[in-house]
């Protein structure tokens, strides 16, 4: 039985264990199961197709997927799904291809022509769309131009026309004598379909016709006969048979630019790309059919202006065409698959390139995404989805399209259940709200059995603005974990789409929700996450954002018109929503060539702005202002000022003699500031010698002109001026050049180059050479052949001006054979051979400069031009550098008298890919403008004279000067410091155009954004710091912040104001701490916080206690002696009236008495450091009515209460106090003291009146002229710490004025017993200690401790005291507290005894101070 029970118990334990494991495994599977992305893409997409009417056609489409069910294919035509159920002519094949059994097309019925798109769908997964394809249907062939009978002279060219519909040109072929004609480099077919026959021979005679085939039935043109005749030798006019036309092509395609000319002598045709001669290269660029240019594998760099130049030594003609190369869209970054949870924000990134710039649209499951509040297109191409919901799942596609084509790429969005964790790697396309804090997204990953957190408590909106809300909450009652993170879900009222924001770090219980709509209601709820997952949600909190300030709306109907080249008239209407009276308007205008916006205040609704630049675009906008501030701006209105005649001539005119009958002119446009309009052309005036000049014109885009038909060996002068529609501007200076006496011979090939030198490197060989010795034979270029063991492996052609070339990408340690041949139009000359072995991989490389200036390279006569020497770069300003050089081939005067010109080139290495810029000039210097400030540039110079060219000179460097920053600091942000609502942190980034090293910043802040600059508060920041704290701001106040950068040259522009509002209240933690410590400083009368006493009230350990005790005993003894002697002298006064006169006499005349013995006036300095002492209250009176008020000196200045606190609440007393001050300040020092009041009181050594403001009124006595007059105005040193010890005065301050009516008398000036020779120290106002019997009072007593005495002996101290007290008048007796009449003039014996007793008590109090621990 026991065994059976044991077995049952064991079985139960096993079952329990297995159940627990199974349950846990299920939880783990549920938490970790992440649905994988489904591979789904197009393997074949439809392509543009040209169909033949009546024939069949196909549009291919096929999709790949790993799903169990294959993708279902549908087709769209022109954006609409096709219904093919009952269509017998069109159907979808099993692989997805759209099949047309026969294409229907007529003039009025074109059902098949259009744009098609394939859509693949997998049920329960989503849909994707293919790229679009165009189906075109070829029309019936129609000949617009047919071949005509023609005659061709032997050796000349002829064109046979054949022009059909543009879409059928590809189907054209030619027949001669009804036999197919084979095309060649001599017989070519032009893009129009015409046939070009060049270098005609007798075999070309016959009948020609063109036919269109493979488009249904073929169609033949008329036949035309071509006859050939011999050349008569008579001169015929040079003219074009076919000229090039502008064309647009895509990259990787081929283009043929036709150019066929006829005349006698037979013309030579060359091509120019821009202003450079175009050379043939490796079969990609070829001249066919005697002159037509064919370019294969087009690139973007091939786009530009091409000029066909036909020259037969008598005449030169030109024809131009623009080649535009389009680039089909290409993905720079494709959208990526994304996992997310509901309520998250995500971004699908898509970056494309192309020319013209592609347009991008997004598609979800085959349907276009329409931008809304939750679906936004950001950064031009990216798709942002806010507040995900489950229905957002599916496939999203980025479709990019331009004129060259279209492409698509797709990505899948999967929204996981809340209990399923996001993958460990953060998805790359989550928004900052989500990616920065993926921790909440990992909920459900932890222990499957642990408890989650309860709901956060007390969710409140602590700060509500127009566009943001700050939420705070308390920790859940049952967190079940330490480090909690929180997710805040919010939605706009009336919508189900919820968004989420996560806290930035564990334990943070506040967040600010940004980018809300004004005057809109939102719902908020907060959820906590612990290690076990997402907890309970708080109750929904509904909060409405504030409404916008009622500022004016935009001013409608803003119009601008240019009246003159320098003025614009503007007008606008009053805003429809003014929200009150419109006070003024602010007109903003921007010179679009500069980009800096300026503004001007306008009172009315129109304004005429003058002083503008000519032919310059300006943008204008208007902002209305009412009492609430500036309103909504209008849209920008762009106005271009009228053009004018150019005010400057063309720049850098250069002249190059081509041959005996032509001269090439080149120039640059006038500077932009001097063009004053679009340049429509250039006028060239030329003359022979001093004869009358003639003129020719060119188009505005043509910056060169070949002047032909000139006389040989003749000097010509040229000048060029620019033209606009308004007229012709000023011309350049006359420049002269002389044509050659005779032309170079091109009836034979050039001679052998006179020398060839090679210099092998590791992976390259530098080849240098000199031209043939016979300079009378035309050389049009050089052909370099090279290869391992044979020079015929590869060939490179270079310009005739070039003298060296580097052969790249060679193998190390290999034997290469190199050949060099000069060539012209007749052919290639005799080659010269050389061989070289490339260096081994380990060999050091050599400097290219040493190669190009090799001393052993011989130069035959005539010498090539020597490069300019002494190149110097002189920095003139922050954007200009003057380059100067010398030319050793000129005479000593260095004056250019021939047709040579110099080419200056410059570049900077910042950034590294900066292109080289060049300019031509005929002077020995050139000032390079428009440079960047504080940038290093390199300059070199080359000289050209006729056909002779030098190499580049040595480089010179120059760094432009710094200048003030031209842009403001950017990305200025203001945030509040955590737990310090009165402190904010300003962050920013350096200006993009610093123009020098930033040495600091200045932060301006103000509560009035419209305040003038000098009214803003300034916070300087030294160095290149990018953050700064500003403290002690006012709560619940809007501040505006601007930042200005500075460098060594000055200040840059200010940033735009950034608004920030401080919180309404202190944080709860800080308020609790302040209340607990009770150390809130009391504000002084000026509103400033009084300084804290930096020294604690106790004597620090380690001080010299013996010295302190000695000093304290000395102070006590000295004080007792002074009081006893003073009292004794007072009793000996017999007649108070006479003694009062004597005192007044001594007060007014005492200066001369002590002039020669001023040192006797120095009282002993007891060196009491009263900041280390503490006054202990001592009650000397045993009776219930004490005569001494307990008044401890405060430990810190925070405990000090101003003496006039009783007056602040009583305007009458405050007024009397102010009048009392004025009476003291305005009492003239020369006026004798009043006989019965002020002098008798102020002369008493124990009576000092404290200033109600916290300082003490008293006269300042100098060593030269000591004075004790009571009538001097109070003075205060400008430097209270300059000479005196920080705390050398020890005072028992005044009784508050509210309790002493006798203080209201304006006739109560105060004078200290002994004036200090140094500046006054910090006055501390403390509570008052009253000395006297009950119901009697006297003025407060101040004990002043002066500087240390010169003679420290006690006897000397007593002599000084006697000399001082001898000059004092008798002390008055105290008056009753209730009676504000003047005090008695002498003491009675009883009163004196009583006062002595109280003085003794005072001394004991003083001793208690000194002996306090």
Structure explained in plain terms:
The protein is mainly beta and 1413 residues long. 11% of the residues lie in helices and 35% in strands. The strands form 24 sheets. Strands 11, 13, 14, 17, 18 and 19 form a six-stranded mixed β-sheet that branches. Strands 21, 24, 25, 28, 29 and 32 form a six-stranded mixed β-sheet that branches. Strands 2-10-9-5-6 form a five-stranded mixed β-sheet, with no helix packed on it. The protein is extended, with a radius of gyration of 50 Å.
Give structural attributes:
1413 residues; mainly beta; 6-stranded mixed β-sheet
Short description:
With 1413 residues, the chain is mainly beta.
Radius of gyration: 50 Å
Helical percentage: 10-25%
Q: List how many beta strands DSSP finds.
A: 89
Number of helical segments with 4 or more residues: 12
Q: What composes the largest sheet?
A: 6 strands, mixed
Task: Outline the fold blueprint.
Blueprint: H1 2-32, E1 40-44, E2 49-52, E3 57-59, E4 62-65, E5 72-77, E6 80-81, E7 90-92, E8 98-100, E9 114-122, E10 126-138, E11 150-153, E12 158-160, E13 172-176, E14 179-180, E15 187-189, E16 195-197, E17 206-212, E18 219-220, E19 224-229, E20 236-242, E21 247-250, E22 255-257, E23 260-264, E24 268-273, E25 276-277, E26 285-288, E27 292-295, E28 304-311, E29 316-333, E30 338-341, E31 346-348, E32 351-355, E33 359-364, E34 367-368, E35 375-378, E36 382-385, E37 394-402, E38 405-416, H2 432-435, E39 457-464, E40 469-474, E41 485-492, E42 499-502, E43 510-513, E44 521-530, E45 533-537, E46 541-544, E47 559-564, E48 567-571, E49 584-591, E50 597-602, E51 606-609, E52 617-626, E53 629-630, E54 637-640, E55 651-657, E56 663-668, H3 672-675, E57 681-688, E58 694-699, E59 704-707, E60 715-724, E61 727-731, E62 735-738, E63 755-760, E64 765-770, E65 781-788, E66 794-799, E67 804-807, E68 815-823, E69 832-837, H4 848-852, E70 869-875, E71 881-886, E72 901-908, E73 917-921, E74 925-928, E75 936-945, E76 948-949, ...
Parallel strand pairs: 2-10, 11-19, 21-29, 30-38
Antiparallel strand pairs: 1-4, 3-8, 5-6, 5-9, 7-8, 9-10, 12-16, 13-14, 13-17, 15-16, 17-18, 17-19, 20-23, 22-27, 24-25, 24-28, 26-27, 28-29, 29-32, 31-36, 33-34, 33-37, 35-36, 37-38, 39-40, 40-43, 41-42, 41-44, 44-45, 44-46, 47-48, 48-51, 49-50, 49-52, 52-53, 52-54, 55-56, 56-59, 57-58, 57-60, ...
């Amino acid at each position: 039985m026991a065994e059976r029970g044991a077995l049952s118990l064991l079985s139960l334990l096993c079952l329990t264990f297995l159940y627990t494991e199974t349950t846990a495994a299920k939880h783990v599977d549920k938490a970790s199961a992440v649905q994988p992305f489904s591979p789904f893409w197009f393997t074949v997409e439809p392509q543009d197709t040209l169909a033949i009417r009546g024939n069949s056609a196909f549009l291919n489409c096929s999709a790949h997927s790993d799903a169990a069910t294959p993708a279902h294919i549908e087709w769209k035509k022109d954006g609409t799904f096709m219904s093919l159920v009952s269509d017998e002519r069109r159907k979808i094949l099993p692989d997805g291809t759209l099949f047309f059994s026969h294409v229907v097309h007529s003039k009025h019925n074109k059902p098949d022509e259009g744009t098609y798109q394939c859509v693949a769908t997998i049920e329960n997964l989503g849909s994707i769309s293919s790229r679009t394809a165009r189906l075109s249907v070829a029309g019936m062939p129609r000949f617009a131009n047919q071949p005509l009978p023609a005659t061709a002279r032997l050796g000349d060219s002829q064109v046979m026309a054949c022009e059909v519909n543009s879409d059928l040109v590809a189907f054209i072929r030619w027949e001669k004598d009804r036999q197919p004609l084979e095309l060649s480099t001599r017989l070519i077919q032009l893009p129009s379909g015409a046939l070009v026959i060049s270098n005609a021979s007798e075999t070309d005679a016959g009948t020609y016709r063109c036919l269109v085939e493979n488009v249904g039935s073929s169609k033949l043109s008329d036949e035309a006969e071509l006859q050939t005749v011999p050349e008569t030798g008579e001169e015929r006019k040079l003219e074009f048979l076919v000229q090039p036309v502008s064309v647009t092509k895509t990259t990787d395609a081929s283009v043929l630019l036709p150019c066929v000319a006829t005349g006698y002598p037979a013309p030579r045709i060359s091509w120019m790309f821009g202003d450079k001669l175009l050379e043939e290269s490796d079969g990609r660029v070829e001249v066919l059919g005697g002159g037509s240019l064919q370019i294969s594998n087009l690139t973007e760099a091939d786009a530009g202006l091409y000029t066909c130049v036909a020259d037969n030594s008598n005449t030169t003609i030109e024809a131009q065409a623009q080649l535009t190369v389009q680039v089909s869209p290409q993905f720079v970054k494709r959208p990526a698959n994304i996992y997310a949870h509901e309520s998250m924000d995500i971004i699908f990134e898509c970056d494309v390139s192309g020319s013209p710039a592609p347009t991008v649209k997004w598609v979800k499951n085959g349907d276009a995404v329409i931008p809304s509040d939750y679906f936004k297109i950001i950064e031009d191409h990216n798709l942002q989805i806010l507040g995900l919901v489950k229905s957002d799942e599916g496939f999203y596609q980025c479709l990019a399209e331009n004129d060259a084509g279209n492409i698509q790429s797709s990505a899948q969005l999967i929204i996981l259940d809340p209990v399923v964790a996001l993958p460990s790697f953060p998805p790359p396309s989550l928004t900052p709200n989500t990616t920065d804090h993926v921790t909440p997204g990992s909920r459900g990953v932890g222990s499957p059995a642990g408890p989650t957190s309860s709901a956060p408590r007390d969710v409140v909106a602590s700060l509500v603005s127009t566009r943001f809300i700050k939420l705070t909450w308390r920790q859940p009652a049952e967190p079940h974990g330490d480090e909690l993170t929180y997710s805040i879900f919010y939605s706009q009222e009336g919508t189900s789409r919820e968004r989420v924001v996560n806290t930035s770090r564990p334990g943070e219980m506040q967040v600010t929700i940004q980018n809300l709509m004004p005057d809109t209601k939102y719902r908020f709820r907060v959820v906590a996450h612990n290690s076990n997952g997402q907890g309970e949600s708080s109750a929904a909190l509904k909060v409405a954002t504030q409404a916008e300030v009622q500022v004016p709306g935009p001013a409608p109907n803003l119009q601008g018109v240019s009246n003159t080249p320098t003025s614009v008239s503007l007008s606008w209407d009053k805003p429809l929503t003014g929200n009150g009276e419109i006070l003024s308007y602010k007109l903003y205008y921007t010179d679009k060539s500069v980009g800096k916006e300026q503004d001007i205040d306008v009172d009315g609704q129109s304004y005429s702005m003058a002083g503008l630049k000519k032919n310059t675009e300006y943008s204008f906008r208007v902002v209305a202002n009412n009492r609430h501030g500036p309103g909504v701006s209008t849209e920008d209105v762009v106005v271009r000022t009228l053009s004018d005649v150019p005010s400057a001539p063309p720049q850098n005119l250069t002249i190059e003699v081509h041959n005996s009958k032509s001269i090439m002119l080149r120039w640059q446009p006038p500077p932009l500031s001097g063009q004053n309009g679009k340049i429509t052309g250039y006028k060239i005036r030329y003359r022979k010698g001093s004869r009358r000049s003639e003129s020719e014109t060119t188009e505005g885009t043509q910056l060169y002109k070949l002047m032909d038909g000139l006389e040989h060996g003749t000097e010509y002068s040229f000048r060029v001026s620019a033209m606009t529609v308004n007229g012709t501007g000023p011309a350049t200076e006359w420049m002269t050049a002389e044509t050659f006496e005779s032309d170079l011979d091109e009836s034979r090939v050039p001679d052998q180059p006179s020398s060839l030198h090679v210099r092998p490197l590791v992976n390259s060989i530098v080849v240098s050479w000199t031209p043939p010795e016979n300079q009378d034979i035309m050389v049009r270029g050089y052909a370099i052949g090279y290869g391992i063991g044979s020079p015929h492996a590869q060939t490179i052609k270079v310009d005739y001006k070039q003298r060296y070339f580097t052969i790249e990408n060679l193998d190390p340690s290999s034997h290469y054979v190199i050949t060099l041949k000069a060539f012209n139009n007749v052919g290639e000359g005799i080659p010269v051979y050389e061989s070289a072995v490339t260096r081994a991989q380990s060999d050091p490389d050599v400097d290219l400069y040493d190669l190009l200036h090799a001393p052993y390279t011989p130069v035959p006569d005539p010498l090539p031009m020597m490069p300019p020497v002494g190149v110097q770069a002189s920095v003139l300003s922050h954007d200009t550098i003057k380059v100067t050089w010398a030319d050793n081939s000129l005479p000593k005067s260095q004056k250019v008298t021939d047709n040579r010109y110099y080419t200056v080139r410059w570049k900077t290495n910042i950034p590294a890919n900066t292109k080289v810029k060049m300019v031509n000039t005929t002077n020995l210097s050139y000032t390079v403008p428009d440079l960047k400030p504080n940038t290093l540039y390199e300059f070199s110079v080359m000289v050209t004279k006729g056909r002779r060219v030098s190499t580049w000179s040595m480089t010179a460097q120059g760094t432009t000067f710094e200048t003030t920053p031209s842009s403001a600091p950017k990305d200025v942000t203001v945030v509040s410091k955590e737990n310090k609502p009165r402190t904010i942190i300003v962050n920013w980034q350096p200006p993009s155009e610093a123009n020098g090293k930033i040495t600091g910043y200045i932060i301006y802040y103000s509560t009035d954004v419209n305040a003038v600059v000098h009214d803003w508060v300034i916070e300087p920041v030294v160095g290149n710091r990018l953050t700064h704290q500003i403290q002690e701001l006012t709560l619940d106040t809007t501040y505006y912040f601007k930042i200005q950068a500075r460098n060594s040259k000055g200040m840059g522009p200010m940033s735009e104001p950034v608004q920030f509002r401080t919180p309404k209240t202190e944080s709860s933690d800080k308020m609790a701490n302040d209340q607990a410590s009770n150390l809130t400083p009391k504000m002084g009368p000026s509103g400033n916080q009084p300084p804290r006493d930096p020294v604690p009230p106790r004597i620090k350990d380690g001080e010299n206690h013996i010295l302190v005790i000695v000093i304290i005993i000395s102070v006590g003894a000295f004080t007792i002696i002074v009081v006893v002697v003073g009292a004794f002298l007072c009793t000996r006064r017999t007649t108070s009236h006479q003694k009062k006169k004597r005192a007044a006499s001594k007060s007014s005349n005492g200066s001369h008495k002590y002039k020669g013995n001023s040192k006797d006036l120095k009282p002993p300095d007891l060196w009491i450091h009263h900041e280390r002492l503490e006054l202990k209250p001592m009650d000397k009176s045993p009776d219930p009515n004490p005569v001494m008020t307990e008044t401890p000196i405060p430990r810190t200045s925070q405990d000090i209460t101003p003496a006039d606190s009783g007056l602040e609440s009583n305007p009458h007393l405050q007024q009397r106090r102010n009048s009392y001050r004025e009476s003291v300040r305005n009492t003239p020092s020369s006026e004798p003291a009043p006989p019965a009041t002020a002098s008798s009181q102020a002369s008493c050594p124990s009576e000092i009146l404290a200033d109600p403001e916290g300082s003490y009124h008293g006269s300042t006595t100098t060593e030269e002229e000591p004075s004790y007059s009571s009538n001097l105005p109070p003075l205060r040193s400008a430097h209270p710490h300059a000479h005196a010890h920080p705390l050398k005065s020890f005072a028992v301050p005044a009784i508050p004025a509210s309790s002493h009516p006798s203080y209201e008398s304006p006739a109560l000036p105060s004078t200290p017993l002994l004036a200090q020779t140094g500046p006054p120290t910090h006055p501390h106002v403390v509570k008052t200690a009253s000395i006297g019997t009950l119901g009697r009072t006297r003025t407060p007593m101040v004990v002043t401790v002066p500087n240390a005495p010169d003679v420290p002996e006690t006897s000397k101290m007593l002599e000084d005291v006697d000399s001082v007290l001898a000059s004092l008048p008798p002390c008055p007796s105290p008056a009753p507290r209730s009676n504000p009449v003047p005090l008695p003039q002498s003491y009675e014996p009883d009163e004196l005894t009583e006062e002595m007793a109280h003085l003794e008590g005072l001394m004991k109090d003083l001793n208690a101070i000194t002996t306090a621990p």
